[in-house]
Amino acid sequence: MRTKTDTWDSRRVTDQITQALELVRGQNLSLESIGGAEEQIVVGVISEFPSETAARPDVSILLLDGDGKVRTNADFVFYNQREAGGGAVRLVEGTSSLNDAVGSPGEVLVVDFASLPSDVDRIVVGASLDSDAGLTFANADHLEISLLVADSVSPSVVFTLSVEEPVLALLFGEFYRRGAAWKFRALGQGYGDGLGALAQEFGVEIDDDPSTADGPTVQEEMVPANDNGEDATTPPDSEAATATASTVVPDGTGHMTIRKALRPPKLPEWSLRNDLNDESEWDRARLFSVSAIGSGDERERRAVSALLSVMNGVREFGRELVRRSGGPAGTIETFIEPEFDWNEKKYRPDGLIRVTRGAKQWVALVEAKSSTAKLTDDQVEIYVDIARKLGFNAVITVSNQLLGAHDQHPVKVDKRKLKKVSLHHLSWDEIRSVAIQMSMHRQVQDSTQSWVLREFVRYLQHPKSGLHGFTDMGPQWVQVREAVKTRTLNVDNKGAIEVCNLFDQLVRHIGHDLSCLLSTDVRPIFPRNRPDSTSRIQQLADSGMMFGSLRVPGATGPLTLAVDLRSDTVECSTIVDAPREGRPATRVNWVVKQMPDAHGDTLVEAVLPGRTSANIGALLGQLRESPDGLLPADGKLPKQFKITRGHTLSRNRGNVVISANKLVEEFYRDVVQVLRSPKPTKPVKA
Predict the structure, then answer these.
(1) Domain housing 161
(2) Are 513 and 433 in contact (CB under 8 A)?
(3) Which stretch of DSSP H or E encloses residue 577?
(4) Where are the beta strands (DSSP E) in 150-219?
(5) Has residue 596 got a pLDDT over 90?
(6) Looking at residue 294, what is its pLDDT?
(7) Closest CA to 118 of 63, 39, 36
């Protein structure tokens, strides 16, 4: 079966839709003026952040009385309490047409003014960020609220915000009564202390005592367990037990409780290497066939056609890749090999993506490579020039190349040309990660689209597709490893520069794998100040080691990967804060008992306070017998525990990647996903 993708028609770029009224901060208008006085209004809230961040703001709505306060906590609408006012105000999963019209992916707000209780005088619409995200609304690329009258095809009103202050919560706009009529006002008011401060200002009763947060505690007595062997004080199916982001939930007392993410997500039962591949007697017929696939240009064209057709056909997948490429939410159209004239020559990039949202269009050229083919500076720069000439917004490159620690793109293009055209790179590793995450974690609502995405995953996984992603440490690996072992590695060794860069790509590759397994955004942590190549090679020559870390939402600390080229070992480690209460032996037992399935040769170290204090280490198997191995003679109490597990590293450059992946998954399953931070100490009341 062949999939059909639209051909490019440059005349369609100029299609126009009725222009929405654009408001400025403080401006208001009557809903009657846009035909919404007696109709439902659909509200889209857009918060777009740089593609390298994991920011996902949460929308909230408050129904207020004449005094500017909620009547009860039931007037606070958010993702755990999805409607108020008897259903007159509700958060709903938008249909394709609704989401495309307002430009807001996922949920939209629907307000039925005819059904609102008579004592509701205002409705404020806001959004908030988790304080642990390391971002504020000042980091946003685009903030917007749009109003759509029911049954319309495009927004009637748009308000675009610009925020300079580092606020964690933001009011986008409000509806309010004036006599018998309803009006809308553009706000743009921020709150530095986040969702709790916003909610409390309008009368929501917040219980923000940190001691109420879920988490393990240190006790001299045993905590009773339920039939499943879990702490009976925390039901296994409770919201707190599975939260991976800040949540706001009713606490049963009439208050609303803000809780922090204390638990990382668990690894699924399925694996990337075994459960996503077919092992049947015969080859099954597939939507994206690899039968009789050629090499070179044919393989590349087939890969691009498959990618663009799935982006066009699977709405959630297409929108996520467009978002990662700096594009807006909207209706996606894709085209294969459009032809353009440039400098008296004809050029045909591999594809084109067009996103339409209201009257605006975002257009990007696509250039892709498969297998071992590399992107070239000259070719990409020509497509940037074509995009500039035609007023397009971006150029997207796709290949098996991953970005290093601080690379913005695999190729170098004159930065002066990127003022009006942005340049983005998607690796096949990243595309595979997004596809598997959405497919295996059921993030695609339509069953047919979900099946199409699963077929695309099988195509990506097939060795003949040429979309293998990151597979080995490069041809210089053996030479550099031997030079490190013999202490003959020089700082001008070009192979060492390549190996260091490939190690950074390995860390990013493992992050992509964990992201799709855990259905969360696992990102590499690189130092802000990039060391020059000479310093980094000197560090490798002196220590024989390379390090990289990953941040997992909810984990007690970064997951650090270390490769020792001298001893041919690879290690994973993480840290957890030590409790501030209990006897020394109780504190050691607290961390040991959290890892019942970890291997006995896992190293546990007590990190002691003071710069001159050396860590004390003991194997987990020994500590299960007695905690004495981590009790210092001088009586100092540990401030942290560091847990490390190592494996012998395969000498084959390709098996290095397999060894590292296997160790990370094992360490995450046995250590990272089960570790909990200690429960905060309750303040002493005077």
Answers:
(1) 10-204
(2) yes
(3) strand 569-577
(4) 157-161, 169-178, 181-191, 206-207
(5) yes
(6) 66
(7) 63
Q: Residue 296 — left, alpha, or beta (φ > 0 → left; ψ -120 to 50 → alpha)?
A: left
Whether residues 482 and 423 share a domain: the answer is no
Better-scored residue on pLDDT, 584 or 82: 584
C-beta separation of 417 from 388 below 8 A? yes
> Which H helix or E strand runs over 400?
none
Supply the CATH number for residue 397's domain. Answer: 3.40.1350
Say which residue the tokens 């044919």 belong to: 298
Examine the domain organization and report whether 347 and 377 are in the same domain.
yes
From 610, 585, 509, select the one nearest 550 (Cα to Cα): 509
Both 495 and 391 in a single domain? no
Tell me the pLDDT tens digit for each residue of 408-466: 788 888 888 888 888 999 999 999 999 999 998 888 888 899 999 999 998 888 888 88
Q: Are 578 and 641 in contact (CB under 8 A)?
A: yes
Give the least confident one: 70-74, 205-209, 232-236, 615-619: 232-236
Distance CA 427, CA 393 (A): 20
How many other C-beta atoms can be found within 10 angstroms of the C-beta atom of residue 674? 16
- Both tokens of 503, joined, read 């190690």
pLDDT at 442: 85
What sign for the dihedral angle of Cα 578, 580, 584, 585? Answer: negative
- Same domain, residue pair 435 and 527: no
Nearest to 593 by CA among 573, 619, 617, 623: 623
Q: Do residues 392 and 361 make contact, with C-beta atoms less than 8 angstroms apart?
A: no
Domain boundary at 414, 440, 465, which?
Answer: 465
Residue 106 has a pLDDT of: 45
Of the CA atoms within 13 Å of residue 306, those in its CB half-sphere come to: 30
67 plus 31 within the same structural domain: yes
175: left (phi over 0), alpha (psi -120 to 50) or beta: beta
Q: Which of 169, 204, 239 is the last residue of a domain?
A: 204
Nearest to 92 by CA among 44, 157, 35: 44
Cα–Cα dist 312/111, whole Å: 30
CB atoms within 10 A of CB 22: 14
Tell me how many domains the chain contains: 3
CB burial of 248-268 (b: ≥16 within 10 Å; e: otherwise) equals: bbbeeeeebbbbbbbbbbebe
Do 184 and 69 belong together in one domain?
Answer: yes
Strand runs (DSSP E) across 220-376, as ranges? 247-250, 256-259, 331-336, 340-342, 345-347, 351-357, 360-368
- Are 158 and 146 a contacting pair, CB within 8 Å? yes
pLDDT of 226 > 70? The answer is no
Of all helices (H) and strands (E), which one includes residue 304? helix 297-313
The H-assigned helical ranges of 486-605 are: 494-518, 533-543, 584-592
Same domain (yes/no): 443, 488:
no
Alpha-carbon distance of 287 to 1, in angstroms, equals 6
Task: Clarify whether residues 613 and 529 are in a common domain.
Answer: yes
Give the span between the Cα atoms of 55 and 46, in whole angstroms.
12
256 domain-assigned: no
Structural contact between residues 73 and 207, judged by C-beta atoms closer than 8 angstroms: no
Look at residue 498 and tell me if it is in a domain: yes
For residue 5, what pLDDT is reported? 39
DSSP-derived secondary structure for 415-450: GGGGTTSEEEEEEHHHHHHHHHHHHHTT---SHHHH
Q: Are 83 and 89 in contact (CB under 8 A)?
A: yes
In a domain, residue 228? The reply is: no
Is 234 among the domain residues? no
pTM exceeds 0.70 for this model:
no
CATH of residue 124: 2.60.60.30
CA-to-CA separations, 97 to 321, 607, 682, in angstroms, rounded: 19, 56, 50
